[in-house]
Amino acid sequence: MVDIKEVLEQEFKQNDAPVDRDKIRKILDANDGARIRTWLGICSRCGLCAESCFVYLANDRDPKLSPAYKFQHTLGAMYRRKGKVTPDFLKKCYEICWLQCTMCKRCSLFCPFGIDIATMITIARNICHSQGFKPRSLSEFSENCRKSGNHMAIPAEELIDTCDWMAEETEDEYKGVEIPVDRPNVKYMYTINPREPVYYPQDISNAAIIFAAAQESWTIPSFGWDCTNLPMFCGDRALAGQQVRNVYEKALELGAEKILITECGHAYRSLAFEGPYMAGYEGGKPPVEIVHFVRLVYEYLRDGRITIDPAKKIREPVTYQDPCNISRNGGLWEDARKIIPYIADDFREMAPNRDHNHCCGGGGGIMPMGPDYKPARMASGRVKAEQIKATGAKIVIAPCHNCFDQINDLSEEYDLGVKALALKEILVESMAIPDHMQNV
Amino acid sequence: MYKKILFCTDLYPGSDYAFAAALDLAETSGAELIILHVLESRHRYSGQLITGDGDVWGSEEVFDRLRQKLREYYCMRVESEQPDFIKVAVRGGVAWLEILRVARKEKVDLIVMGPYTVRGSILEFVSKTPQLGATAQQVSLRARCPVSIITSPKQRQALEDAEILT
Questions:
Q1: Residue A180 contacts B, CB cutoff 8 Å
Q2: Residues of chain B positioned with their CB less than 8 A from the CB of A168
């Protein structure tokens, strides 16, 4: 692994509180069910998980980077020691949990027993967090969530102002594009990543253009619009629950039929699958149906609600990045492949792909952990860089903000000469403008 | 002529020429002058902003400190003792987006800025091979009001040498 000792020393410097073993025991006891006991006891150290892990593959196949080693030396050791751990042990856990595992769950596909290692790493993160060992950046973003409901602490009026601005921006080119805020009884309550209003507001206008073309019933909520869940990556389970509750409750308040998620991977995992458990909803089902943008785009194209202008199809070679939390953990890998023939002529699969695709290396929270961790992110991303290079593609479709940024960084780092594009951007550039949107 | 002018500074001496022009226009027109600086992130998925003191987490305290510094620096260049027509704003994000955001919000009728600014992960000021900066390009392409790009003599020479202004 890349040596970022100084970065870690800085992170740990702020935490000199003694280890609170009672707190650790409490978390261990709360998770001490048949599932965790079975997983910890059944692992036969067969090593099949090792070759599945991109961190292991990218770092000279160091046995200490095999998923089995990682969970045995974090959560496994915590149980074995009955919570009696030292600060040095927790520092080592921090390194494993946040630098060596993006919780992509690829290893679970290869484990003969189907052990869910990511879930165990999540619990280990939770324990580290309870002892103050947490990435500062994720912790700051989480505090923003606590204070404002979104990880960039964007006030509601600023979001609304950005929506108005983006609607104005479309006026010259398209007719009838609006960005409704808090409209009740719509089909889709559209939730976004806070990076969109701050860094890519065009992403919001692109979504609005697509919705206008499809004549969709939708709204952006003024609160509960942040579909991301950085407290989940930070190990703050209680706050992670609150974060999803904000979205669910707003959708119920507005009477929205479904919650739509922008092109973000972990948001889908959080709201559709893990959120109900984190927020304490019975039965593990969200109170409102969750739809990811990849699914919506496929439905629009399938049903002819948006059509592609053949002259505007992408001619350059294209590949598709299966985001872990949309494909492997979200089940949408075939939906994505049904979209591609509409928008591109020369599609080249990465190998492996679909549910077996490798993580880009930017997941699990390491991307928002900031530039100090970039060397580790780039080193582990070598597997993805090689996958992309082998396709010969010039464009990588990446319907996830993490993958998008990681691939652009990898392109620079490994001189790949590729550009990551979001689906929305491609659609707006290539769709046929329907008559009702033509500016006369 | 103008009621509200937005001057965007990259904190490099080159932008002093743009400030002199903005100030002159503001004084001549009796306009309000907003001085804006945008603190950028080294990475877009980071809450840390690049400042003179290194990368720091964007907070009101950081913004306040910079607002104060900007006020001191620019007010020294104004003859009036009580330059109450000057307002200072600091934001974090992508420079061109924040300039457009503030211009729209404040309903300014003119944006004044230098031709290029510091960008990219390396953050080196490459004066030998300058380009019309991405910020100036995006702002002039997208702003709903006139944009005045003021070059210092050195910047102008460098742009001419690079055959950007011919």
A1: no
A2: 104
The pTM (predicted TM-score) of the whole model is 0.93
The H or E element containing residue A159 is: helix A156-170
Which chain A residues are Cβ-neighbours of B61 within 8 angstroms? none
Suggest the residue from A173, A198, A403 to mutate for an interface test with chain B (most B CBs closer than 10 A).
A198
Is the Cβ–Cβ distance between A302 and A271 less than 8 Å?
Answer: no
pLDDT of B118: 47
CATH code at position B116: 3.40.50.620
Best residue of B41, B45, B119 to probe chain A, by most A CBs closer than 10 Å:
B45
Yes or no, beta carbons of B42 and A195 under 8 Å apart: no
Which residues touch A36 (CB under 8 Å, ≥6 apart)?
A: A75, A79, A120, A123
* Contacts B94 to A, Cβ<8 Å: 198-199
A165 and B57: CB-CB below 8 Å? no
Summarize pLDDT for A361-371 with one digit per residue, the tens.
999 999 999 88
The parent domain of residue B71 ranges over: 4-165
Q: Report CA Rg, chain B.
A: 15
A260: β partners: A190, A291
Confidence band, pLDDT 50/70/90 cuts, at residue B124: very low
The helix/strand/coil state of B51 is strand
Find the farthest-apart pair of alpha carbons in chain A and give their distance in angstroms, rounded: 73
Long-range contacts from A3-10, C-beta under 8 angstroms, 24+ separation: A4/A99, A4/A372, A4/A373, A4/A375, A4/A376, A7/A372, A7/A373, A8/A91, A8/A94, A8/A95, A10/A372
Q: What pLDDT does residue A142 have? A: 97
Please, which residues 236-265 of chain A have a Cβ atom closer than 8 Å to chain B? none
- Tell me how many domains chain B contains: 1
Sort out which chain A residues have CB atoms less than 8 A from B47's CB and list them. 137, 140-141, 144, 152, 368, 370
pLDDT tens-digit readout, A241-290: 999 999 999 999 999 999 999 999 999 999 999 999 999 998 999 999 99
Question: From the list A201, A371, A401, which residue is nearest B43 (CB)?
Answer: A371
Residues A125-137 pLDDT 10s? 999 999 999 999 9
> Is residue B115 very low, low, confident or very high in pLDDT (cuts 50, 70, 90)?
confident
In whole angstroms, give the CA distance from residue B156 to residue B165.
8
